Fold this protein.
Amino acid sequence: MRIKIRAFASFREILGREMLVEIESGSRVSDLINHLCKIKPDLRRALFSDTGELRDYFIIMLNRRRLDLPKDLEAAISDNDEVAIFPPVAGG
């Protein structure tokens, strides 16, 4: 199945603005993240700590709905879904 990835700010430097990836049918968000980390190794360093723990400060959205990480990493994804990845957001 084909998934559209949109990256913002510092993640855009790693992934580019948009990309399409092909992954197996029945995949979950965690499978997609692992796939992206294989094809873009710098992403693994951005998303995971040195001990392999998922960092908790970035945002992943699935079809414009913010995921509750790490719980929603097991959310199913479908053909033509859109996943957006954002760095931490601060304002003032």
